[in-house]
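Hi R.,

As promised on Friday, here is the backbone we talked about, encoded as structure tokens. Could you run it through your design pipeline when you get a chance and send me back a sequence?
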């Protein structure tokens, strides 16, 4: 079975059940599948061939979900794009993925107009929303009355390519098959015990792997999805009560914000069974504050794009350990390995910290057009995550840090090298180092240390504007420090730990 066939079956068995609620509009499973069929047929008429990539540059809106399914149903491969990315960031992904189609929101049209089309294989630019077409195709005109019957999906067929930042600053395309998705959905359904009467609240960006799972899981279970275009704390609390939400997921920042809101004693969340957290480390302090405030269990899990989404999760039925990311999901294998200069050498026992490796049918097929990186992280089916952790004697896992030089801000991955490379193109900067600073709400915040060129006066606001014109806003530094020189190791490498120590001493 593939994802398209699953949706078709839901439309046949749950015809009148409401699948999607969005800003006063609702679609039954039958209505939604009809739109997906029609859109898929329109894409095929436009020339979409099996295996071709279709990029989605959309916000959290119904068109994202129906485009995701229409592309898959037509035999194509979905390439979700971060809606915060700017033209330069988009260009690399579109070129690397060899996307032939781009479906985007009119609200993001400014970046598309800035996009350099030379070197890209784009044949059709499709705009969702009102405004001047500029030679683009109107999304609403794509829906066809003539339905095609695509070839049957195979579970090994690639469904999507999810781009995740690479350690060199260049994103890598994670190839996920229908089997990857269906395996991870099955694992989550078993642990979370979701079923057709569940209502899931979708507040995460749909391009994010956890956001994607939160609209796929209701379809897998036959339940309903209440979708928000953006995260609004007070609206979320209202929706939890109004729609009697039973399943809710967010990143740590979401729960930190909700925990700090003024009391709402009149609100009742009697149907909410638990809340799930992923995307970044969650502090025990936030868990305790949230649970005390709302009386709802908060379940932390662990995963990554290369494993579709989730690898482990604290179970709602059974022992729960705040501070851990729970045991491995059913059918998942996780081991902790030690490393020496010669590579991974042995598997570690309980309470010993090492690199986390995962194995299961949810592990990616590999990186798109990048065999070298694929071979580095996939060994005999085992995925080297680059994350450090350990497990206790009960088999619960704990994350201790990352081998990779990466910052996670509000669930978004940020690689310092990418930010550094942009800043080094500024004529006034001689050297630069980007680090992550602990932040109670965002998890980590981006800080930059700058060594200016001789006789050049640095203005941080100018540099901030410079960054915002080249990078997604969430990647841009929020904290700036001008220094005379960067501390370096004997090998000449920047000592970022030294910078962190210097920063904290300046803050005290």
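Update: got your reply. Pasting your designed sequence below so it's all in one thread:
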């Amino acid at each position: 079975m593939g994802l398209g066939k699953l949706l078709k079956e839901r439309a046949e068995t749950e015809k009148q059940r409401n699948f999607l609620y969005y800003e006063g509009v609702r679609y039954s499973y039958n209505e939604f599948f009809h739109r997906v069929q029609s859109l898929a047929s329109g894409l095929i008429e436009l020339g979409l061939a099996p295996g071709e990539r279709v990029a989605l540059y959309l916000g959290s809106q119904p068109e994202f979900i129906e485009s995701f399914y229409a592309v898959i149903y037509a035999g194509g491969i979905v390439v979700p794009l971060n809606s915060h990315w700017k033209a330069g960031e988009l260009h690399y992904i579109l070129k690397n993925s060899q996307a032939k189609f781009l479906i985007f929101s009119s609200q993001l049209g400014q970046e598309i107009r800035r996009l350099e089309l030379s070197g890209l294989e784009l044949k059709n630019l499709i705009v969702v929303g009102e405004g001047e077409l500029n030679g683009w195709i109107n999304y609403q005109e794509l829906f066809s009355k003539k339905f095609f019957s695509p070839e049957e999906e195979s579970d090994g067929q690639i469904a999507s390519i999810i781009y995740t930042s690479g350690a060199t600053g260049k994103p890598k395309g994670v190839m996920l098959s229908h089997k990857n998705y269906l395996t991870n959905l099955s694992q989550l359904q078993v642990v979370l015990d979701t079923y057709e009467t569940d209502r899931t609240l979708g507040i995460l960006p749909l391009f994010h792997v956890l956001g994607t799972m939160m609209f796929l899981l209701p379809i897998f279970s036959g339940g309903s999805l209440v979708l928000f275009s953006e995260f609004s704390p007070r609206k979320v609390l209202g929706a939890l009560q109004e729609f009697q939400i039973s399943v809710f997921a967010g990143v740590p920042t979401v729960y930190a914000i909700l925990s700090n809101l003024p009391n709402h004693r009149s609100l009742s969340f009697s149907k909410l069974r638990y809340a799930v957290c992923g995307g970044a480390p969650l502090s025990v302090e936030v868990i305790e504050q949230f649970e005390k405030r709302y009386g709802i269990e908060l379940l932390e899990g662990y995963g990554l794009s290369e494993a579709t989404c989730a690898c482990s999760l604290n179970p709602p039925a059974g022992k729960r350990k705040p501070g851990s990311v729970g045991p491995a999901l059913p059918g998942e294998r996780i081991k902790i390995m030690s490393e020496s200069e010669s590579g991974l050498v042995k598997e570690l026992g309980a309470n010993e910290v090492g690199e986390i490796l995962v194995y299961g049918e949810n592990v990616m097929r590999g990186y798109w057009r990048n065999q070298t990186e694929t071979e580095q992280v996939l060994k005999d089916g085992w995925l080297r995550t680059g994350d450090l952790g350990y497990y206790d004697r009960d088999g619960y896992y704990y994350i201790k840090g990352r081998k990779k030089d990466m910052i996670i801000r509000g669930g978004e991955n940020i690689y310092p090298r990418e930010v550094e490379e942009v800043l080094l193109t500024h004529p006034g900067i001689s050297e630069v180092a980007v680090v992550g600073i602990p932040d109670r709400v965002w998890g980590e915040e981006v800080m930059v240390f700058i060594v200016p060129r001789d006789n050049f006066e640095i203005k941080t606001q100018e540099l901030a504007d410079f960054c915002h014109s080249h990078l997604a806003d969430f990647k841009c530094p929020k904290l700036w420090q001008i220094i005379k020189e960067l501390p370096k190791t004997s090998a000449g490498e920047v000592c970022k730990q030294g910078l962190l120590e210097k920063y904290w001493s300046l803050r005290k």
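One thing I noticed while checking it: Residues 175-404 form a domain with the Rossmann fold fold (CATH 3.40.50.12780).

Thanks again,
M.
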